[in-house]
């Protein structure tokens, strides 16, 4: 049985989301190793929410250190036949630390490139807890 183009694209997107989860997991482990007394938690969610119940996937990590919580993540939304990819980091769920520009595209390969790039950029922030303080 062979995959059609649509199925192949979906499989590639799921593989990229899995890779992003692995990257955020490694990132959480590395930050925890550098900061000792902290807790981290991997985020990986697929669902439907919002107007018209748009399907989405969210991958990222939550870092809890002392009284500060930092969430880093990448969202991939499917809206009106296209993709919207966003990357962010928030402090205590209120203050934006990093807000990467939304990527809007109908090309699944471009959406996957944005997912990978935003994951790479967020996981490169080794001093994110110091930035949040």
Please describe the structure with a list of short key phrases separated by commas or semicolons:
alpha+beta
Provide an overview of this structure:
The protein is of the alpha+beta class and 133 residues long. Helices cover 39% and strands 43% of the residues. It is built from 3 helices and 5 strands; from the N terminus they run αβββββαα. A 5-stranded antiparallel beta sheet has the order 1-2-3-4-5. Helix 1 (5-35) packs parallel to helix 2. The longest helix is centred in the first third of the chain and has 31 residues, at 5-35. It is elongated. The relative contact order is 0.18.
Topology of helices and strands:
Elements: H1 5-35, E1 38-49, E2 54-65, E3 68-79, E4 82-91, E5 95-105, H2 108-123, H3 128-132
Antiparallel strand pairs: 1-2, 2-3, 3-4, 4-5
Give a count of the beta strands, DSSP E runs of length 2 or more. 5
- How does the overall form come out from the CA principal axes? elongated
Oligomer: single chain
| Distance from first to last alpha carbon | 54 Å
Helical coverage, percent range: 25-40%
Average pLDDT over all residues: 88
Instruction: From the alpha carbons, calculate the radius of gyration and give it in angstroms.
Output: 16 Å
In this structure, how is the largest beta sheet organized?
Answer: 5 strands, antiparallel
Sketch the topology as an H/E string, one letter per element: HEEEEEHH
For the biggest β-sheet, the strand order reads 1-2-3-4-5
Query: How much of the residues is beta strand, in percent?
Result: 35-45%
Count of DSSP-assigned helices: 3
Return residue spans where pLDDT drops below 50 for at least 5 consecutive residues.
none
Which structural class do you get from the secondary structure elements? alpha+beta
């Amino acid at each position: 049985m062979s995959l059609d183009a649509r199925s192949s694209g979906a499989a590639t997107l799921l593989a990229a989301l899995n890779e992003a989860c692995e990257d955020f997991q490694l990132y959480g482990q590395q930050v925890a190793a550098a900061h000792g007394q902290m807790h981290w938690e991997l985020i990986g969610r697929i669902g439907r929410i919002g107007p018209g119940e748009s399907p989405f996937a969210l991958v990222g990590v939550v870092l809890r250190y002392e009284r500060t919580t930092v969430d880093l993540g990448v969202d991939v939304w499917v809206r009106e036949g296209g993709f919207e990819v966003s990357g962010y980091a928030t402090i205590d769920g209120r203050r934006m630390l990093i807000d990467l520009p939304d990527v809007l595209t109908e090309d699944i390969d471009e959406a996957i490139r944005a997912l990978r790039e935003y994951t790479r950029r967020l996981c490169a922030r080794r001093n994110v807890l110091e930035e949040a303080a």
